[in-house]
Amino acid sequence: MYSFSEITDPVAEKVKETWIKYLSMEYRFAARMRNAPESFLKKLFAVSSDPSIISFAGGLPDSNLIDVAGIRDSAACVLEEEGREALQYTTTEGYLPLREFIAERYRNRLGIAASAENIRIVNGSQQCLDIIGKIFIEKNDRIGIERPGYLGAIEAFSLYEPVIKSVDMNESGPDMEGFEKLVTDDKIKFFYGIPNFQNPTGRSYSYDARKQIGGIVGGSGSLFYEDDAFGELAFDLKPRMPVNKFAPENVITSGSFSKTVAPGMRIGWIMAPPEIISVFDTAKQAADLHSNFLCQKILDQYLRNNDYDAHLKRVVSVYHDNCMLMQDLLDDMTVAGITHTSPEGGMFMTAGLPKGLSSMKLFEDGIKNGVAVLPGIPFYAGDGGDDMIRLNFSNTSEENIKEGMNRLSEIL
């Protein structure tokens, strides 16, 4: 490797001095970045990629359930029939046939009056979080989020320096009195929630809670941001009515094919009222011009030429069995004080810890003993969370679930 110590030429010596000064300079980052907490997601992916660790900490779908053959055939077809077009720039809105597929699925499954005109393709639903934050949040604006809530949303919104107000989650959804107070008294810009198989708890909003939320935000100056990344992963395969149904003018809905087809394609979507979509387009275009066009075409080809619902049935069957096994093993633990949620779909559950046991210490001890869990602290916008852990059951074999839970039990 080339070293600065080898430089002797006078001109090169000056270059050396300049580079040393450059490398040691203090970069003048924006205040919002200097104050931003370190991303726990980065640590999470590092842990999840270590083959020596049985990880319940990640949020990955099962790689063995990705239909590689079907996607390969779809890719070959797209490249053979329209390769030059698929490898060219495209519009910010996203591939129209794919948007029409999404809209049709909303109409047929949920009775939502969806239109491709109000749907945009994004780089995974995570991009929606950033762009919605960008177009709505000014410094010290008030927004609402579930407690506990999705850590990726907390990190994304925090970069725009809002005041984040949290509402406790119970078995049927957010505490409704607290939610209504945020809308009527705090005048929040929006409330972000995951009504179906929430991350991290795995809980779902009841029908009544969804209807109440629609009634509260409908006609108000506040929005409900409905993240439906897990809606297609119901163990009973039955659709849950979205909040969008009850207040379409006050609801932003996002979804993703990452949990159902393949996360590496980075294809998600947003559905929102026309006025929001127009501003969203401006921000999206400035950010990346458009999402991966080749992957959009491949995905559309795949969805139209394969039985998507049969694929979902296979995925859900595995996740259901994994979830039931993990719950049974938690129930069998002899440690007093262990509790857990009982999801009806999705990829996650949470476990409450015995009094006095720190989730951060459990995370650290677990890594040393070959098992990873996700501490609860990152799921709280303020204090709290050290008395719970999140467990992922989608990306681990039954054998590893048994061994991993055994290792966890020994630590506890």
Automatic annotation (TrEMBL):
Query: What is an annotated GO biological process for this record, any one?
Result: alpha-amino acid metabolic process
Cofactors: pyridoxal 5'-phosphate
Listed A to Z, the keywords are: Aminotransferase, Pyridoxal phosphate, Transferase
Q: Which InterPro entries match?
A: Aminotransferase_I/II_large, Class-I_PLP-dep_aminotransf, PyrdxlP-dep_Trfase, PyrdxlP-dep_Trfase_major, PyrdxlP-dep_Trfase_small
Domain (Aminotransferase class I/classII large) ranges: 80-408
User: Which GO-annotated molecular functions does the record name?
Assistant: pyridoxal phosphate binding; transaminase activity
The source's superkingdom equals Archaea
Q: Which SUPFAM superfamilies match?
A: PLP-dependent transferases
Annotated protein name in UniProt: Putative transcriptional regulator, GntR family
**Taxonomic source organism:** Methanolacinia petrolearia (strain DSM 11571 / OCM 486 / SEBR 4847)
